[in-house]
Structures are given as structure tokens and as C-alpha cells.
Amino acid sequence: MPSPYVIRAVQSRADLEQVLALQRRNLKQHLSEEERRTQGFVTVAHDLPTLERMHAVAPSIIALQGSELVAYALVMPRECRALVPVLEPMFALVEQLEDQGRPLREQRFYVMGQICIDKAHRGQGLFEALYHQHREQLRGTFDCVVTEVSVHNRRSLRAHERLGFRTLHTYADATDTWAVVRWDWVPPPRRLEELERSDRVLAAAGIGRWSRDLSQPHIVCDAICRVHCGLPADGPVDPARVRERIHPEDLERVWDAARRSMEERAPFELRFRTRPSAEAPSRWLHVTGSVFHDAAGRARHFEGISQDITAERQLEESLRQTLIEKNDSLQNLEIINRTGQALGAELQLEKLVQGVTDAATQLTRAAFGAFFYNVLDERGNAYMLYTLSGVPRESFANFPMPRSTRVFEPTFKGEGIIRSDDITKDPRYGHNAPRRGMPEGHLPVRSYLAVPVSSRSGEVIGGLFFGHPTPGVFTAREERLVAGLAAQVAVAMDNARLFQRVQEAVTSRDTFLSIASHELRTPITSMKLMSQHMRKRIDANDPAAFTRERVTRMVEQTERSIDRLARLVDDMLDISRIAAGRLQLHLERVDLGDLTRDVVDRFEQQLTGAGHTLTLRLAPGLVGRWDRGRLEQVLANLLTNALKYAPGTPLTVSLQARDDHAVLEVEDRGPGIAPGDQHRIFERFERLVTASEVSGLGLGLHIARHIVEAHGGRIHVRSAVGDGARFFVELPLAGPPDATAAKP
């Protein structure tokens, strides 16, 4: 809080009259022995003319509380020695004294004529304040002040010593024993040299000095301290100017530390930031200081030093960042090693991909990550799956799979990595209707990182995608980490898919062996039983066993078994060719209507025997470039399928032209096929009923599909449970585009 006193020079006769009044109240003869011993006293009485003449040479200093004078300190230059004869011996003595080898008479000094403080205001720091005002007012004219203090006036003597007075000489006269004391304002040459040398050392070390008399409004800062705080090179410095230069985040901490130092008498030491200007970077300062208190415990003076430690703090921050990065690197290395081991051991594709997604999300510090990847179904068609990390799967459940937009396309085409500090500001973002950006309710994405995952053959398996709602999260570090992980996962996924294919092959083999053994056993068993029956008849010399009718029936039955075995063998050979990619076509001009009649004629007896009624609707003149034998095989398989699954129902075989294609349709009125089973019937070994209900390997429609697709066509079914089935074969009239098809 501000001081209640005003310290200034004498300005009027009324000021001098108040000085005399206070002096009279404190003369030695007016005080008791106890007061003289405990409170101090003054010994010389002045009059008003004397004070006026002294004031004319050098104004004395007074302290006022309001309009009341409560303290004074009289200035008595050597020119005034004759004004107070009682002090002449003191002046004569002082001029004979030396201080550190220099006579006082050769120095600029004046005598403190008298200092006195009203009893009601002692202990308020006025003694120091009066002397400090002397120094501020007269230091340009004088180098020091000299005075005498009674050695019995212990209070006064201690007060002078605290201020910095040194005793030069002690003597006794008829009235008392006196100590001649001096307070230097300009150090002697040797001391000055030491201080100058100390200043040079501090300046070389970049250490600035500052101080503040707490009764004054300004802070004294040297040039280095001004640079540290970004203060002007000259001019007064007030606390408000210093506050402006302290970093806002540190201001409260600095002021709290200064307050504690003054209130608790604790050393002031703090590291904080200053801002020399709005454009310049902050500086870090290490500031230390001490607070000096008066006898009553009030803070009177605050001073210390400052040092720029910006480089030190930058080094500390660099080391801290290095340690953080090293720790991050060790953690990342652990994650990568753990993930690498898992990749090498895991052959289940879904588990593998989920593990990679989790590890990559952790490595990138993403809010969430996803791996969208392509897989092949049993027909070789690609479809997309995905794994998520960091968010529940429900977060994506209501949104479609990523499309080949400008943002996603480079990743799914394997063109390179995309890293964006803010994908919403990317020129590729928001071009696709209808949403023109992320759909409503989608996870917020600003930082974006996408890395393609490509197999050793160059095939793009999928992509790793990472997002964060805060811009600028992903750096080149995260990009490198995920790129390295993507290379590893590509190899692991290749291995997993190879393992998956091997498993599928083993499963297919086991299924094939199971079905084939059953299907082969049936005709073989039939022929074996017939052979055993004939052997018994021969051994019994039974002539009735060899009638024409019986032999004909036996031959026909044997031929049917042989035909069935031949078909099984042909189907197995076709499957082998398809698996090896060696299903060749012998192309020629084929009239599809004629071919259809020929096949239907061959099946007429079987169809009639099974109770089918057949309707033909064949458009004439549909000629294309096809493999006749293979198309006969397709139609035969469709008719066989109707015989097995829709016996006794009406059949319709249609043929029509559609654009540049021929469309062959086989329709039955059988039990129909459920929607969930319609894609399965074209796969290997797939049958909708058990082997005991329907014979065959379950290969007919599978082979038919590959034959039709080899011609560049398409086979599909439309059906509903209880409403029969319609099989469509669409064939391009120009034949297959495959240049490897064999020519006739």
C-alpha cells in the first residue's frame, strides 16, 4: 500500500518553524534519562535565521503526514560551519581525518546537521527515507555525508550503521563521546575499480541488475536488465511497464513470489517468461533478489539480478522432447515387434486384420482407425470387409462402404499415401453427391491418413485409414510407421489368404472324395450285383437267364451305369481343368436352336419317363461363335438338374435374341429355390438336398457357369420357394473375347 508520508525538501518558512518545534521537543535537556537512553535525543538548538541561511545554501529534507511535519534531516555544507559555532570543532576535526588514505578536506562532503523523528512516528522507516532522499537530491553535488553520533545514543548509532554509515573516528569532549561516521555515495577509486570490474564480469555473463526503493514509484534497471525485459533503453521504468512485459501465463506467479518475498522475508528466485514485443519470441529469465526491511519489519528496498536462460530452457525442452521421442520410439518398437510376431503367427485373416488395425491406431495416436480390405468369395468375386479400432462398430454400421471418390480412390488404386492436416479443406473433398462430404452423424474427421496395402504381386488388398477430430495430428513420423506396417501386413495377408485357399482346397478335396466315393459306388455296386447274379446263373446252367429280353435289359442297365461313370469322370476332369485354368473352347459357328433340339431329343426318353411335359419356344437363326460340345454340356446339365429337383413338372425351354446376345431359358415348375441359396447352387459340390435324396457330385451347375463365363456370357437363376425356377444363359453372338480359345 502507498506510504502515508511525503518526503521532500523544505519549501517555506512555515516548514522551518515546524522543524524548530520538533527540535525543541526532542532536545536532550527536555527528555528524561529513560527517554534519552531508549528513544535518543538531539543536542544542538537552532534558531530560525540560522535555518533560513542554511536552507539558502542547500535545502534540508523533511517528512510530512498531511500538513504536519513529523521528521527532518538538516543539510549543513562546509559553507555553513560558521552559522553554528558549537559545531566548528567538529568541522575542524573532520577536515583533519583521512578515509582510505584520502583526506576528507579533498572530498565533496557535507555534514548532516541534525536528524530527528517525532516519537509517534518512529519505527515507520522515516530515518532511512530521509537519508535516501538526501542521497537522491544531493548525490550530484556531494560524494558523501558525514555526521557525529553520540556513542551513548545507541538507537541512533545502530540506525546509521544499518543504513551503511562507517565509523571514521571516535573522540570525547566535555559533553559526550562521539563517533564520526560517513555514508559514501561515490565509492573510493579502489572500490570503484572493484565495482567496475564486477560490473564487467556481470555484463560478460549477461547478468542484469535491478533495484527499487519501495517508497519510490520507479524501478532502476541497468542496460542488460532492460534488454531482458524488452524495456526502453532509457527513461523511467514503473511496475506497470514491467507487468506488460511478463508473459500473461506467468504474471500471477511472479507477483505472488514477490509478495511472499516481502511479507515472509524469503529470498526471491523465479524462472519466468517475458515478451519483448508482440512479434518477438518470448525470453526465459532467471531472476533472484532480496528484500530489505526496516527495524519495524516493513519492506523498504528490493533489489536483485536477472539472467537470460532462454538457450538453457530451449536445450532443456530439446532434451525433454528427445526423451519423449525416445520413449515413444521404444513403445512404438515394442508395438511393432509385438505386431510383427503376431503377423507371422496369425493365419486367420479376420484376426490378423483386426490386430493390425489396433496396432496402427495406437502407433498413429489416431482417435479411430479402420482397415477396409477386399476378399474373394467362392465364385472369385471381390467384396469389402472392414475392421475398426478406437470406436465401436456401431459407429460405422449405418454408413455405406467407402466409394471410389476423389479422396478414397488413390488409396484403393494403390497410387500412394494421403496425409492431410485437415481433410475438409483438401481440394479433393466434398465433390460427390448427395452429401458433398461426410454424412450426418459420421465420426468427425479433420486429421486424415490413408495408406494402401498392396500384395507382392501388386494387387491392392485394401487400405488403412485413420482419423482425428483435431487438425494437424498426423506427421511424417506416423506416415512412415504405417507405411512400414502396411508392407508387413501385405505379406501376412498374402500368407493368410494362401493358407485360407489351402484350407478351402483341403475342404473341397474332402468333400469331393466323400461325394465321389458315394457316387462312384452306386453304378459300380449295381454292375457288381448284376455280375454276381449272372455268375450264379451261369454256374447253375440256367438257360432262362439268357433270354434275349433279359440280356437286353442287363446290357441297357450296364450301359446306364457306364454312362453315369463316364459323366462322373468327365465332370471330375472338367473341375480339374477349371481349377488349373485350362478349360479350352473349340469355337465354330453354331446354330443354337438346332443344338437345343438335338439335346432335348436325347433327353426325351428320360423326360417322358420322369413324367415331364416339355414345351419348346425356339427363335430361329440364332447363330454364334461358340463351342458346340460345351454348350450341349450346359443344356444337358440344366435338364439333368430339372430331372433331379423337379420331377414330373412341366418344363419349358426357350430361345430368343436380345440385342447382340442369345438368351437360352430353362424353366421348371418344381419346388423352387430360396433366395439365400440361389448363389450357392453354382458352387462346387453344392446340393440343396442330401446325397441320399439326389445323386450326383453337385458339379453340374458349377461347370455350366464356368463354360458360360468362358464364352463371355452369364448364367443366373430367378426363383421363389414353391414357384419353380428359371435358369437363364446369356451368350454373346460374337463369341468369347478370350484370345486363348482354341480355333476349330
Automatic annotation (TrEMBL):
Residue span, PAC domain: 266-321
Superkingdom field: Bacteria
Keyword Manganese (UniProt): no
Keywords linked to the UniProt accession: Kinase, Phosphoprotein, Transferase, Two-component regulatory system
Record-linked CDD domains: HATPase, HisKA, PAS
SMART domains assigned to the protein according to its UniProt record, in alphabetical order: GAF, HATPase_c, HisKA
Catalytic activity: ATP + protein L-histidine = ADP + protein N-phospho-L-histidine
Keyword Transferase belongs to the record: yes
InterPro entries reported for this sequence: Acyl_CoA_acyltransferase, GAF, GAF-like_dom_sf, GNAT_dom, HATPase_C_sf, HATPase_dom, His_kinase_dom, HisK_dim/P_dom
Domain Histidine kinase: 515-735
Protein name (Swiss-Prot/TrEMBL): histidine kinase
The organism of origin for this protein: Corallococcus caeni
